[in-house]
Amino acid sequence: MKALFLTVWIVLGLATVVAEVVGLLSGGRFPTLGDVMSFLMRSRVGRWFVLIGWVWLGWHLFVRSGVPGF
Amino acid sequence: MAEVRLLEAVQGRWRSPARVAVVVFVLAYSWWVTTFRPFTWPIRISTAIPGVFLLLLAARDHRRRTALRAWVASWRLVQGRHEPSPLWRRVVWRGGTVYWSLLIVAISVWELLARLHAPRSLYPTLSSLSGSVTRVHAIRFLAFVLWLLFGRDLLRR
After folding, report:
1. CB-based contact (8 Å) between B99 and chain A?
2. Interface subset of A 10-49, CB within 8 angstroms of B
């Protein structure tokens, strides 16, 4: 089960990186993550959704994961 | 000529002592915050401070944002396409937005699935995966600075 979960995470990570690189190299033909964020943040609800998502990401990465090695 | 203007712009941005002080403060704060152990009150409070600060700034931001249709039109102008873009370009752009939407949904579903199962060693979440990388203080510090920069970028959109 661990192998399956790790494989899917790697595939999703690669899919994200590839899409971002394609978007950056396409000269605006393919959207980047920034374009998607701008699109979502056009509305007030979307704006708050993205900003709360940012807070959640920081909380997840720094409060709920990792132990400093010193 | 363009390079000279760019250099002047960069120098101008760094000429302000207040701006330099803010950058130094943010770096020092990020370094200090990332010395705290996870799952403790110091890291909870020190991570919540920039989060609450950004949400307060967002609540005070009453800029009128252009409607979606106007935004798409302006994006086409930026791209230098005054005439309607060819069909294949629209298909690629819309396909890209569908791709990103599906990717965001897939990441959310997979995170939720992992979160609903135990033990974490068999069902890794994003935080348990990132935990193995951010054990190193320098990487943790860099990740915190990137998170703050990402938040600032979102606030400007």
Report:
1. yes
2. 12, 15-16, 19, 23, 26, 28-31, 33-34, 36-39, 41-43, 47-48
- With beta carbons under 8 A apart, name residues in chain B contacting A20: none
pTM: 0.74
How many Å apart are CA B72 and CA A39, to the nearest integer?
9
Q: What number of CA atoms fall less than 13 Å from residue B124's CA on the CB side?
A: 18
ipTM reported for the complex surpasses 0.90? no
Q: How many CB atoms lie within 10 A of CB B17?
A: 8
pLDDT tens, N- to C-terminus, chain B (157 residues): 555 565 665 556 666 888 899 999 999 999 999 999 888 999 999 999 999 999 999 888 776 666 656 656 655 555 555 555 677 887 888 889 899 999 999 999 999 999 898 888 888 888 888 877 788 889 999 999 999 999 998 888 7
